[in-house]
Write a structure and sequence with these properties.
mainly alpha, two-stranded antiparallel sheet
Length: about 200
């Protein structure tokens, strides 16, 4: 499961910012890259099987996370939602070697963002996704859905600003992709994301 103590050790608590925190804003980069399906090993019914796994539609994963947070009474704004998507992406990638979402996280000002999902939720707003069906996410192996739930339980207790600060820590995938914040909107490396979550979150 997600290791909350490791999150705290990384300095999520105690970090302060003099800037007034705002919700995600700005222009969405064009030409969002979608990932082609790849042949990967994943868990199904407790056994490792070789199968073609297609990363899931980002809007469907976002809707699933919104619904689970609503059921768990986890408060959301758009920024926190994006960070929780990133955390789920990272834990699933780190534990199972699977890309949960079909677009890559990008290094925006307040942390990792899935641009297409962000653009959609900015237009329709969070509550509109409570009614969106999520059949592909519902069909994921129980082990993957359980990990998503554990991730939401662990990271959902933090505010959007705390999560944003955590993603900005020196050495994080966001930090490496953006050169410490000096070069924004680049793609986060899946290898860096996987290694970071294996080392600092998963146990």
């Amino acid at each position: 499961g997600a290791n909350t103590s490791a999150i705290m050790q990384l300095g999520l608590y105690g970090r302060t910012s003099r800037k007034n925190f705002q919700d995600e804003a700005g222009q969405t980069p064009k030409n969002v890259v979608k990932e082609n399906p790849s042949r990967l090993t994943h868990l199904t019914g407790g056994a490792m099987t070789e199968a073609t796994f297609r990363p899931l539609d980002s809007l469907q994963v976002m809707a699933y996370i919104i619904k689970r947070c609503h059921e768990k009474e986890i408060t959301l704004n758009i920024t926190k939602l994006q960070k929780l998507m990133y955390c789920c992406y990272g834990t699933v990638l780190g534990k199972f070697g699977l890309r949960l979402i079909d677009e890559y996280p990008a290094a925006w000002q307040y942390g990792p963002v899935f641009p297409e999902a962000l653009r959609s939720v900015q237009f329709f707003h969070v509550l509109a996704f409570l009614d969106k069906e999520t059949p592909d996410v519902d069909a994921l192996p129980e082990s993957v859905r359980k990990l998503i739930d554990e991730t939401l339980d662990s990271f959902g207790k933090f505010t959007a600003k705390q999560l944003s600060d955590w993603t900005h820590l020196k050495g994080s995938p966001w930090y490496l992709a953006s050169d410490g914040g000096s070069s924004l909107y680049g793609r986060l490396s899946d290898e860096n994301v996987s290694n970071y979550f294996k080392t600092n979150v998963l146990r």
